[in-house]
Amino acid sequence: MKHTLRQVFRSGKFLFGFSIFVSLVLIVLIYPLLVPDDPLRILGQGTFFPPGIYVNTYDSINTSTKYTLNLPNADVRRLESKLSQEDRLAMREWLIAAGIAESEIDIENTSSLLALWNSNYDPKKSIPGMTNARRNYFIRLNNSLKGLTMAGDLVVASKNAESGGLEDLGVVKDTDYVNISEVANVRLLLLGTDNFGRDMLTELVTATRVSLQIGFVAGLIATLIGLTLGLLAGYVGGIVDDIIMFFTNLFTVIPSFVLLILISYSLGQEQRGAFTVATVIGFTSWVWTTRAVRAQVVSLRNRDHVNLSKLSGHSIAHIIIHDILPYIASYVVMALILQISSGILAEAGLSILGLGPKTTEVPTLGLIMRWAMIYQAHIQGNWWAYLPVLVTIALITFSMNLMNTGLDQVFNPALRD
Amino acid sequence: MGKVILEVRELTTKYVTRFREDVYAVDHVSLKVEEGKSLGIAGESGCGKSTLALSLMGYYFPPLHYISGDIIIDGKNISGMKPDDVRKSILGREIAYIPQAAMNALNPTQKVIHFIEDVVQAHDPTKSKKDIYEMARALFESVGLPASVLQKYPVELSGGMKQRTVIAVAVILGPKVLIADEPSSALDVTSQKMVIKMLRDLMESGFIKAMIFITHELPLLYNVTDDIMVMYAGQIVEKGTAREAVFDPLHPYAKGLMGSIIVPEEGLRSAKLTAIPGVPPNLKKPPAGCRFADRCKYVRPECRVTSIAMREVGEGRMYRCVMSEKELREAYQNG
Amino acid sequence: MAKREQICLEARGLTKVFGFGRNKTVAVDHVDLTLYEGEVVSIVGESGSGKTTLAKILLGLINETEGEVYFQGQKRDIRSYRQKQEYWKNIQAIFQDPFSSYNIFNKIDSVLLDCIHMRGGRRLPYEKKVELMAEACRFVNLKFEELTNKYPFELSGGQMQRLMIARIFLLKPRILVADEPTSMIDACSRATILDMLMQLRNEIGMTVIFITHDIGLAYYVSDTVYIMERGRFVESGSADKVILTPSHPYTKRLISDVPKIYEEWDLSTV
What we know:
By secondary structure, chain A is mainly alpha-helical. Chain A has helices spanning 2-10, 12-34, 57-61, 74-82, 85-97, 110-120, 132-149, 200-236, 238-253, 256-267, 274-284, 287-301, 304-311, 316-352, 365-374, 377-380, 387-411, and strands at residues 52-55, 67-68, 154-159, 166-172, 176-177, 186-189. In chain A, strands 1-6 form a two-stranded antiparallel ribbon. In chain A, strands 2-5 form a two-stranded antiparallel ribbon.
């Protein structure tokens, strides 16, 4: 037994899968201790804030100390950040139309582009083929560019509640800086927010935990049912075998996912907690375990060591527990791992269809996918709303399948290389 | 004395286990097989006889490693050759090998003729399929196998037929030496007899020049080969003609082995089978002296000191023991 | 040779059919068998002759399709598992492959303890059990002290089969079915195993059924020999009569195909 365990942990594949899985579990366990937020708390007003560090503007203006830094190229950077790619393309269009050689225009170099624009743009110049609306667009563009290049201080004022007048509070210069550690409210949103404005990372970690729990419960239920029925059918045989195999075959013919959808639908939205869904998944996916366990037991039943155990006067229960179960234990563990990973996938599939757990209580990996899909994150390019979830699901199933393959190689020497 | 076809001098090979332990399964083995003769190798499981069969081919791949010694086939030393060269120019042409349970190694999705084409074309890619078919048909008919077998799949053949087919495929290129490792032990007695007859026919027709036959069944060996060598714990302990080895063994282990022969013949029921107590030594750490010392009835203190050399008594008759022939015979008489 | 007085086990028209319809195979076909107390009987057949199936029916490990078995004059009734457990107190087995005969998760002690418990020794003090186990091991030339806390697969094939005999020594059954007990072990250990079996038989006077493909072995050990071909007995009688003067062509062929050392082995008859 010890020897087998050592061999299992010597298998590279198993070890790799196992370490991915353990890291995931550790993250799931440790993260809530570090960030004890409610995962479903709505932080942002608006949908899909991109990932990044959010600094409170109010607090940063109100910090007690202000620093003046004269950083080189600060102006250029500011300009660059304000001049969108669309504007740059429009500027190039006008310049080319006005007869500037295309090779002279470098739209990536903001300062040379602006210089070229300022020296050439003439709102009165009529360019053949250009509509009025287009000409007005360029006039507007020119005005906004003027505003950009105009360097000036910002005045911060507050409204007097009595007189309604503005009171000057101070001036923010373009060389003013705040130290981010002195700003009272800074929030790191590593994965941005979802469509409801919830912190995506916290939600994802909680969802991973819930999905793993669902997977474990579903896998355990499926394996327990499969093991019991398989042992009964395989060892007892006869009419018991016939009845069990009749139902097993029946469930094999009906795709379990269809069954899952029907049961989930008939339960209704209100009845579907995470663990109800897990139980439903467990009760619809025992079929393959039953078949596999039965096949193993049938071949074990006529082995000499079982015959010897019978001849030694052992009861049927003793034989099943001592002479059959240990021999199929490795197999059952492998089946359990597969069942867990397929349980997680089944939950994700159900949730995407809108038949997953109730949406107001806990997030699951499938539910996050569903929300991202409904709010069209994938169309708008809000990758942070669905890609991390996809990667997490992939990592979980990948690590579990890898562990399974590793175990398979240890227990079936024929597959060893 | 005929021409020597296969000569092996002091061949030593080892296995490396998964735990990096060395197992010296073939330890300074020397043997000679003359043209038209066959040599039998007898011994219990784990004595190194199958490893010897593998080592004789000169084709080493992990976990089997060559350490020292020469293998000379028809005057050509193959022991220093690269594995690839051995595979291309020696295997099949000079030496053919039939492993244990070879009949189960046939690919079930291919016809028998395909295996023959494979073997022939690996050595002579220019040969046409028609020529190969004619060649195979001639060989099959000469050993009493119907030519229709060539167009069949392995599953359509019975166990005995399959085994004979495997032998035919192995010797299609007319090798000088055939090494057969337990070619008949998984078969029932009638099929076994047919396999033996086929091997004898191949030898008599001169299609193969010499044969090494490995088995643990002594009555079979006695009926198949001219000479018998007894192996124990990686070493040869007795060598002689089949008659000498079976009816007049000198080494105490060979004596014990011959005393355990069971045949359905008169006199067996009253005979007492000899039993050798104990188990063979661990080849990871072979004892310094005689390897049989722990199980030997006649063990003396000097047996355990240094390794025992082979003693030669008469033409090709050898044994590995500290006692002289006379001493041994007296000991056996006194029981 | 045992005196042929009391019938120990009798089979009448024993038949076993596997499968049904087109897949139907008759493994054992209306076999009649009479075993006398203390006799050694061999059932000889090639692979596929149904000898192992017959052995398992006699052992009660598989149910016969047709026919009756009489044990010590009474019709055997082993329909319930409890009845089987009673029956197995009288009949035991040694299997062909020692490596698959033991549960690899059980230690040697538990194998032997099971036997003591089956003989009603569950309440014995532990020291007494150890004494019994040590005695059994001594009988088969094994040292019990060296075996405790070991697993059967740590032993050699011959030692495992000896442990099997130690089991029989503790169980003292009326009948022993030995299914090719020496075919997987070396020639040198074979004699030891056979000697021990015969010595045990003489000591506790049990009846032994040898199942073997080796006609020489059958001749060596048994009083009576049955030759089995395709589920039927084609010839039976005393060992000397069947082996030395066979009458059925199948027996003749079987004997002539076995390599011999004293007579010429005729290769031309294949």
